[in-house]
Amino acid sequence: MNSIILNGPPGRGHLTASKQSSLKGEYAIGEEIGYRHYSTVNVAVSLFNYNITNNQITSSQYINGIPLPSPIEAGGKTSRGAQGEIGLRPWHHWSPYVSAQYLHATTDNNIQKGSDFLPTRGKIAVQSPEFAAAVGIAYDDGSIFGNFNFNYVGSQYSAIMDDEKVPAYETANITLGYRMRKLWFAEHPQFQLNIVNIGAKNYLSGVQSISTNAKPTRGVNGSTIAGSSPLYLSAGGLAVVASLSTGF
């Protein structure tokens, strides 16, 4: 299987093609400090810093019209940020929840392409949205249950040169259900309705194939390096799923 990888000496990446790709092992050194509190209100906050060597980016390429895994080794990466979450234990059967994350992730080296280098050092890392958040609330009184959750994912780059990106998007889902007591031989039969992607429109939900540079780029040594467009994943539309289950 032909595949594309990025490798090279420390501090630099090199673009090559090989039939049997052998990726170097990825490893990370990280530090994290935070605070957790568990009571009626549960709280968790933290700051983190990770330095990754031989960063492996999940990607794919098409061979004879078939998408095949093609991980990319993109040199070094530094990820820093903060995350936090707060949730309430069931109170009058209600349980709200909020979480958020800020992320600043950068590529640590220039990527070699041909006889030149792309000026990727210091660029925002691909597939690394700067901000993401989730809000949810659940209800369960033993019989009636349900939950609502809303997620926001900020824009994220799809090319290592930061010249193309996936726009920010939001998703929302609802679950509604009723749990009965024993009915004849059925133990706690349950009806559940899931509504997925409420209000969804066509949007890009991720990157299937990463590009080094989407547009022609002037290399470090002055040559013009041709670009290639990334490939994207398109999200599905509204879906409604009903289910009936029971124990015996």
Write the layout of secondary structure elements.
Elements: E1 3-7, E2 12-18, E3 27-37, E4 41-53, E5 56-57, E6 60-63, E7 66-69, E8 72-73, E9 77-88, E10 94-107, E11 110-113, E12 116-118, E13 131-140, E14 144-153, E15 156-157, E16 165-166, E17 169-179, E18 187-196, E19 204-209, E20 217-218, E21 224-225, E22 231-234, E23 239-247
Parallel strand pairs: 2-11
Antiparallel strand pairs: 1-2, 3-4, 4-9, 5-8, 6-7, 9-10, 10-13, 11-12, 13-14, 14-17, 15-16, 17-18, 18-23, 19-22, 20-21
Describe this protein with a few key phrases.
248 residues, mainly beta, 4-stranded mixed sheet, 23 strands, elongated
The termini sit apart by 49 Å
Mean pLDDT: 85
Largest β-sheet summary: 9 strands, antiparallel
Number of helices: 0
What is the 3D form?
elongated
Q: Over all CA atoms, what is the radius of gyration?
A: 23 Å
Helix and strand element order: EEEEEEEEEEEEEEEEEEEEEEE
β-strand number: 23
How would you classify the helix and strand content by structural class? mainly beta
Strand content: over 45%
Please list the strands of the largest sheet in the order they lie side by side: 3-4-9-10-13-14-17-18-23
**Low-confidence sequence ranges:** 1-11, 13-20
